[in-house]
């Protein structure tokens, strides 16, 4: 059943089959066991204790959850909902409806005793609370800019229960086993690319050489892009990075020891913008505590699924709330004013064709690799960016 701001635990008036369901529940629970498995009273010793089975009151839990957060006049405000669910209510309901519709596990079913299990609302709430707070299931039992593509960097996620035989391979400089996430993020904190499950003993270069970040470019699937800086034309986008990345045409680093005023200004602005990916990591960990705390899972595939789910939810939240950002009006006005004089264009709106399979020849692949890793283009682009940055922000304009 899809969820549209109405309780799935319907009354008899709203659900014509409610009385039949209650009769079936009563028959299966009280009469069916005695019909097929008649048993007399069990003899117990005087000192024996009778175990008491806890009744979880799933229906009551569903109703309380619905009244607290999803009713027309919920107990908790929209602000409290956003803080606890990490997203707004319509987005959560949209995600839940799609998941319940396509995943049998999340649908409400009867158990072997004929009793209704947890509702889809309870299951999805438990899942999002586990991701948001990094808690075990029992702990939430109460409810059951110009040519630049973005900034690239890596983040470590500590793996507490890493198998002992693998610990040396996954142990980084901190002395703790971890897994590495490589990501590309823009100023809206949207994560455009992610690559996870590399052992923590690797550095950023090791991750880069195994990353698929340039696969679309090398196989010809990436759309063409052309932009001009300081009067020179370039046809390949670039990422802002820290100093460990190589001098490729697709990477622009700052200066660790700038000598000139132009270099100092460029280094400050590059470092300021490059922090977008670090901010994205911080927001991802703040939003989903499960990736901030040491992971307790043993299976590497499970960790990958958790990270992927958190990134997908993070991007959905960014897309849903982008218009609420403090700088949204400023950014929108900047893009509108700059639209007429924009020098970075993606083939000027003309249709383009790209290859969806392997390169036509090995020479085409080698040519793309050479262009992507060209240090000459890297230095030329960096000098043009320094000059452009100085003309726009340096001197009297700073």
TrEMBL record:
A Pfam family it matches: Plant_tran
Top-rank taxon, per record: Eukaryota
InterPro entries registered for this protein in UniProt: Harbinger_derived_prot
This protein's name: DDE Tnp4 domain-containing protein
Species of origin: Spinacia oleracea
Gene name per UniProt: LOC110797971
